[in-house]
Amino acid sequence: MEQQYGQTGTVNRPALTYNGDGGTFFGILILNALLTAVTFGFYYPWAKAKKLQYIYSSTELDGSRFAWHGTGKEMFKGFLKAVGVIVALYITFFLLMKAGMIAVAFIVYFAAIIAAVPFAIHGSNRYHWSRTTWRGIRFGYRGQRNEFILLFIKEMFLTLITFGIYGSWATINLRTYIVSNIRFGSGEFKYEANGSDYFFMNLKGYFLSVLTLGIYSFWWQADMYRFMVDHTYLQHEDKTFSLRSTATGGEFAGLLIVNAILLIVTLGIGYAWIETRTLSFLMSHVEIEGNVDLSQLSQTEEEYRNAMGEDMADLLDLSII
Amino acid sequence: MFKGTFYDHKVAVAIPATIRIFDESLQFETPVEGMPPRRHHWLFSEINVDMADKRFIRLVNRADDAGTLEINDAAFVELFLEKYKHIRSIGLDRLVLRNGVKVGLAALLVIVGLAALAHFVILPWCADRVVDRLPRSFDKELGETAVQSMDEERDPAASALLAKFGAQMHWDSPDSLKFFVVPSKIENAYALPGGYVFVYTGLLKKLNKKEELAALLSHEVAHVSCRHSVRKLCRDMSSSVLVTLVLTNSSQAASVFYSNANALYNLTYSRQYEQQADIVGMETLRKNHIDQHGMVELMQVLQKLSEKVDVPEFISTHPLTKNRISYAKENIKKHPGTVDPHEQMDVIFAQLKALYK
């Protein structure tokens, strides 16, 4: 850890790096594909665990690697539960239809679909963070399920009746809720941002992208990434780490254009290298600075092994974390 | 002695550890301030192993002496796995982590091999078995649907003469055959499953003798009796099933590549079918004591028509006419046949030709 001694005390700048190797990651993905194909898809949860294990173990913070402890078995059980819930929902729907209560059937159906998304987001966060550790210290997510579902429905409703204009505020409010409930042992994450800033940033990004025939979209991408990173803080006791993105639009353009070329000329086989380049890019462009002493973080978060939300999120094709 | 880092699962302090490996356990010491170092003894049976790459391994103990030991040392990883594999087998993924891209490429080859095997051998075989099980009435229905949807204009007088011409021959086909003449400049003919044979006047005008017409009809009827359309349909369907199975999660580029390769490959199928139709058609001619050279002459007529465009064989639906002529000639040498005069057919052929004077 780089340390500086100033008037306000110690300033730490722990580095965040991704050290994964495209070739190894390619091996993992292709082996996963092979096993998933020959098992008719049943290997999927194990494949996912292998992939996440590799990505987490290749990510380093302040010289120590992250670890992913989720297992294929947990995610397979979660998958069965998620499928069970969906099947139960369909059965209820058809029974209500048969009983002639068509209106009720549709209300139940749509209510369940609307609740499923926040339910999945909540469950996925709980599972995902609980299974992530760094130096043996667990992360955690402390959001309340019902609170989050209500918040989600409210934000979606407002977005709907404003024809999407409220979307920027909704995104920021949901992100604030989720990130501020993430714990890193005894450390707490905070997200502090303003929906209006996000709205005007997106408005500018949208119009400039249209005017420049899409060229500005790389700078818009950089702005969005910066908006996510720069408003995130880690607090521990009375000390704070602030994050800063150093990725510029030009660098994003370089990354994404080369990615696209790689994907095309390798007919998709280069995907592993693309993912590696992207992760490496995103992490190396985060600067962490503050007076938190990472070695003082202590174990506070409980273990949570229920992967149902995680699988539900996969089934709904939500990409959350 | 190896160096590692120990974490006690209570605080995120990195504690240096010196480790020794034994046959079924490992021992390590962690310093304690002002006291002799603390000694830990972990049995292989109580630890979880998380190998990130060939240089880094993480051992997690959830038993009484809970903690995580991280070692960033290739020599340690190798020695540890050597000892540990007696307890638990080393999975395929560990192989990847140790050998990286090589295992990936090998796995890719296996996938491509399996897909190719499935595509070129297993699926066509299954599709052919399915076709053998399908009743002939399926062909008939398919053909009827196609006839209705295409709804081609027919020349009733010429069609009647063509049917009469066809009736002069004995056909080895379980389907009841129907012959039609379609007024059109197109120089072609085709058959639909269930026994519908269509000849365009464009081609009919180019034919010079009854043997050529007999060869043309024999070729088309062979498509019907060998059920080529239904076979092609089943093969196409099975390969599209394979595509969805294998390529569900792969990129757009890969699927475009596959579908193009598949389209090219389907053309080789179609050339195989054409050749089979030629050979079976000649057998029909032979059995009817019609001169098999009619097939060669028909091909020469077709060659004249196609002289204007030169299509390489691998993107053509039909074999090159040159090739067709040479294998047809060889086939005649191999299976010579006797020839009857068939005067009635000459008469009908002349009547047909007279319609288009």
Can you give me a brief rundown of this structure?
The complex is a heterodimer of chains A (321) and B (357). By secondary structure, chain A is α+β, with helices and mostly antiparallel strands. Chain A has a domain at 71-193 and 309-321.
Summarize the structure in words.
The complex is a heterodimer of chains A (321) and B (357). Chain A has helices at residues 22-38, 44-57, 72-98, 102-130, 145-161, 167-180, 195-211, 217-230, 249-265, 271-284, 308-315, and strands spanning 2-6, 9-13, 16-18, 59-61, 64-68, 132-134, 137-141, 182-184, 187-191, 232-236, 239-245, 286-290. Chain A is α+β, with helices and mostly antiparallel strands and 321 residues long. Chain A has a domain at 71-193 and 309-321. In chain A, the strands form two sheets. Chain A has a ten-stranded antiparallel β-sheet. In chain A, strands 1-2 form a two-stranded antiparallel ribbon. Chain A is globular, with a radius of gyration of 22 Å. Chain A starts with a strand and ends in a 6-residue tail after the last helix. The mean pLDDT of chain A is 88. In chain B, helix 3 (101-133) packs antiparallel against helix 8, helix 8 packs antiparallel against helix 9 and helix 9 (252-287) packs parallel to helix 11. Chain B has two domains: 2-97, PH-domain like, CATH 2.30.29; 136-355, no CATH class. With 357 residues, chain B is of the alpha+beta class. In chain B, the strands form two sheets. Chain B has a seven-stranded antiparallel β-sheet with strand order 4-3-2-1-7-6-5. Chain B has twelve helices and ten strands. The mean pLDDT of chain B is 82. Helix content of chain B is 55%, strand content 18%. The interface between A and B is large, with 43 and 43 residues.
